[in-house]
Design a protein that fits this description.
With about 300 residues, this protein is of the alpha/beta class. The protein has helices spanning about 15-25, 40-45, 65-75, 90-100, 115-140, 160-165, 180-185, 225-235, 240-250, 255-260, 265-280, 285-299; strands spanning about 10, 30-35, 55, 85, 105-110, 145, 155, 195, 200-210, 215-225. The relative contact order is 0.07.
Length: about 300
């Protein structure tokens, strides 16, 4: 297994000379190198270890690099991993084909060690920034994911992946939509879809909009749970319960507005109504009522 804390670079190439050259150059930077001599071997390897970046030869016997990349991209768990194509083919049609298959970059052989290491650094930094943004969305309560025209999950925030796996009727393994959600997606309905979770909760699936040409951005929202308990216990509306729950977690009005897609001014108005209903004057007193209400309902 790769050492913790070290970048993991997967090199897929059927040439021993290329594998040897790249392994020496990349390991000199302190990264861990995994090698696969075919597309089939690479697809098996990534089921056990997720690399941070992949260098992929376009022309290989059997499963070529273009098809290997398409299959890697079809796995939602690998969607965030950048793929750099390597090949002696430099015609525009081959470059376009590699990018359309899901590659983020393209280098031609013979490969310069300085160039490939620079490209690895750039794409690792970009991939980490994107993953950090998804983690930040999760921490803010925005569980987002994108699907293609057929409903296949292209990427998702970590918590969204977990919620997708908990859905009744969801396929096992990689994050996927259940059949009811696929049917809803085909209708172009503007309204949200309620989906049952295996533990008895319900989720709401909502359409956010299109990302690029072929991806649809979707959002999962917990329907029930703490928000529903607060609504019933304190006599609040659904939106007021949502605002109050985030107040109890120490979020400022601006942060709550971003989480719930509200303006800070609207959040402030909700807080005024909440304080009046609860008979309190500030966030601290309101938060104390939240803790008490949730504890009472667990008892």
């Amino acid at each position: 297994m790769p050492e913790s804390g070290r970048d993991v670079v997967l090199v897929i190439d059927d040439s021993p000379e290329t594998l040897s050259f790249l392994t020496a150059a990349i390991e000199a930077t302190g990264a861990t190198v995994l090698v696969a001599v075919s597309g089939e071997a690479a697809l098996t390897l990534v089921q056990e270890i997720t690399p941070d970046i992949i260098l992929l030869d376009a022309v290989m016997p059997g499963l070529d690099g273009f098809e290997t990349c398409r299959r890697l991209r079809a796995d939602a768990a690998l969607a965030h991993v950048p793929v750099i194509f390597m090949t002696g083919l430099s015609e525009t049609e081959h470059i376009v084909r590699g990018l359309e298959a899901g590659g983020v970059d393209y280098v031609t052989k013979p490969i310069s060690s300085g160039e490939i290491l620079a490209r690895i650094r750039v794409h690792l930094a970009n991939a980490r920034a994107a993953q950090s943004a998804r983690l930040a969305l999760d921490s803010a309560g925005r569980f987002l994911f994108a699907v293609d025209a057929a409903g296949a999950v292209r990427w998702c925030t970590p918590q969204a992946a977990k919620l997708l796996g908990d859905l009744d009727g969801a396929a096992g393994g990689d994050p996927a939509l259940p059949q009811a959600a696929l049917a809803w997606l085909r209708t172009d309905s503007a309204g949200p879809l309620a989906l049952p979770v295996r533990d008895g909760r319900r989720l709401q699936l909502s359409r956010i909009g299109r990302v690029g040409g072929n991806e649809v951005l979707l959002r999962l929202t917990l329907d029930g749970g703490e928000i529903e308990r607060l609504r019933r216990a304190l006599g609040l509306t659904q939106r007021e319960a949502e605002v109050l729950l985030w107040v109890s977690r120490g979020k400022a009005s601006r942060d709550i507005g971003e989480i719930l897609s509200l303006s800070p001014r609207t959040v402030t108005k909700h807080l005024e109504q909440i304080y009046a209903k609860l008979g309190v004057e500030n966030r601290t007193s309101a938060s104390a009522l939240v803790v008490r209400a949730l504890q009472d309902q667990r008892a």
